[in-house]
Write a structure and sequence with these properties.
By secondary structure, the protein is mainly beta. Helix content is 8%, strand content 37%.
């Protein structure tokens, strides 16, 4: 398996290099034992789930300025499901990575530090960047190194970022993805609440539902056969205390992206209709209206707005619904008084 992994990674690295995607850095670093508390086999797995409310406030009407954003690449053993752990590669110890927010015209300084205890070279490629490799070449950092670059935010939109070290799909599948919002001049229309949700896949040697510490499967990754589909990094992560929460009468916006690395999402909220959809995360185009399900490709994003009229528990899914049974479900809990004028169970007694 080790020989096959290194061979496939070398071939993939050569392919990327031939296409001009990456520099000449290492393709797949030799693994060395982890000695810190979060390494494989550690007793206490790290909580890697990014809260859906963990995003900065709207920028609004301020003018352009210089903004510095920081990323630390850290490899940790995290909780994938009850009784199940997985060795994640992360930005800032969470999946997805931090949600960044800038505006058109900002000068953005990106600083990436690869944790000294990492086993891999890491970097970051921002889809929001107009420039060489999205910053990937400039941030190619060995364990213990710090790299950076500066870019001008030219285009409004909601953009994915991810590690792009070959084999990029391996780094992404292990958790290295996130999003940056570039607000248009004057900001976006205000809403009462905003949420941050990303979909990803994990490829494990062990079948879905296996307890204990799971290991990655390079063969399943190459064949695009994930065992797990997840929102925000783990099985049913956006349920219970981490469910999205709002009140009836409020408007909410979900910034939704697909880290992938391979599968397209058909994003849907059971029992709701998207009032506005910023399709393909284009914030300068007229939004679509009254949409039931929206297609989001890997490496893509969307922003959806809803007004919540009826209280209840709404379920976030990919409408490729078999994926629910592999961990892909979240909840939007809406509190408020009943609205029998809009929805009620049962019908009046009538004859036929």
């Amino acid at each position: 398996m080790t020989t096959r992994r290194h061979l496939l990674a070398t071939v993939a690295g050569a392919t990327f290099a031939a296409a001009g995607v990456m520099g000449s850095g290492p393709v797949l670093a030799q693994a060395r034992p982890h000695e810190h508390a979060s390494g494989p086999g550690a007793d206490a797995p790290v909580d890697i789930v990014r809260s859906p409310t963990d995003l900065p406030a709207a920028i609004g009407k301020r003018g352009p300025r210089t903004v510095r954003i920081g990323l630390e690449t850290v490899e940790v053993t995290g909780k994938l499901a009850d009784g199940t752990t997985y060795h994640y590669w992360t930005f800032n110890r969470k999946v997805p990575g931090p949600f960044f927010r800038v505006r058109v015209g900002d000068t953005v300084e990106v600083v990436l530090e690869n944790h000294p205890d990492s086993t891999m070279v890491h970097n970051v490629d921002f889809h929001a960047v107009t420039g060489l490799h999205g910053g990937g070449h400039a941030t190619e950092a060995a364990p213990g190194e710090q790299k950076g670059f500066t870019f001008k935010a030219l285009n409004a939109g909601l953009y994915v970022y991810h590690c792009a070290i070959p084999m990029a799909a391996q780094h992404i599948a292990n958790g290295m993805y996130g999003m940056i919002l570039v607000e248009p001049e004057g900001g976006l229309p205000p809403v009462d609440r905003e949420f941050y949700v990303m979909q990803g896949e994990l490829y494990t040697e062990q079948p879905f539902g296996t307890r204990g510490h799971l290991t990655e499967s390079f063969d399943k990754l190459m064949n695009e056969q994930p065992e797990y589909y997840v929102f925000n990094g783990a099985v049913e992560a956006l349920t219970g205390d981490r469910a999205l929460k709002a009140k009836a009468g409020e408007t909410v916006r979900i910034y939704f992206g697909v880290g992938g690395p391979n599968k397209t999402s058909s994003f849907h909220v059971i029992g709701e209709i998207f009032d506005k959809v910023y399709n393909l995360a284009s914030l300068t185009s007229a939004p679509l209206k009254d949409v039931q399900t929206i297609t989001v490709p890997p490496g893509g994003a969307v922003a959806v707005d809803m007004k919540l009229e009826v209280p209840g528990d709404y379920v976030l899914v990919d409408h490729a619904l078999s994926r629910v049974a592999r961990g892909l479900a979240g909840k939007l809990v809406v509190e408020g008084p009943p609205r029998p004028d809009l929805f009620r169970e049962g019908v009046k007694q009538v004859g036929f």
